[in-house]
Design a protein that fits this description.
six-stranded mixed β-sheet
């Protein structure tokens, strides 16, 4: 309930900006993955398979670096939906072959540091210098991400409407931190 653009519009915009790779990471599932793979190939963009996982002990973007990693990622997402007490820390404790973990959750990264391929995710508006200092101190690589919810600024109003519906509020009462700028 954030994304306001069709997958094709996002892929075309990525291509227009000379991107060669693109990840679409739905929250807690692979809802748009089959369409994304087809559209990305059509537009000669290398698709990156991933998922945004939100669990009780943290949040992370999990990316499959190899085709062999997809079954591990798929099993992890299934467990997330089937296990009432699912937790990212034990699920990723031994690392998963071919899987990269991006997170701005410094507590989660601390728990997983020796057990997974980790990247400190730097997001616009994140906690300033704190994630950068954490990455330097622990010698972890950094990756700058930017959640994209629409390909064209004309879709901003739809993005706001989706957020209001999701939060069961009015557009007038929609918290500013729940939307991205046009």
């Amino acid at each position: 309930m954030r994304g306001a653009s069709q997958l094709e519009a996002l892929v075309v915009a990525a291509r227009r900006h000379s991107m060669t790779h693109l990840a679409i990471t739905d929250t807690n599932g692979f809802y748009g993955l089959p369409n994304f793979l087809e559209i990305a190939r059509k537009h000669k963009i290398a698709p990156i398979v991933g998922v945004q996982v939100t669990a009780r002990d943290g949040e992370a973007v999990l990316l499959a670096r190899t085709p062999e990693a997809y079954p591990y990622l798929s099993e992890l997402v299934s467990r997330l939906h089937l296990e009432e007490t699912f937790s990212l820390t034990p699920a990723l404790a031994n690392g998963l072959p071919g899987l990269s973990v991006l997170s701005s959750d410094l507590q989660l990264l601390s728990k997983l540091q020796e057990r997974a391929e980790l990247y400190v995710e730097i997001r616009p508006g994140s906690e300033g210098e704190k994630p950068l200092r954490f990455a330097r101190e622990r010698q972890l690589p950094r990756v700058v991400t930017n959640a994209v919810y629409f390909a064209d600024s004309k879709d901003y109003s739809l993005h706001r409407l989706l957020r209001a519906i999701d939060l069961n509020t009015t557009l007038a009462d929609l918290p500013q931190d729940e939307v991205v700028g046009p």
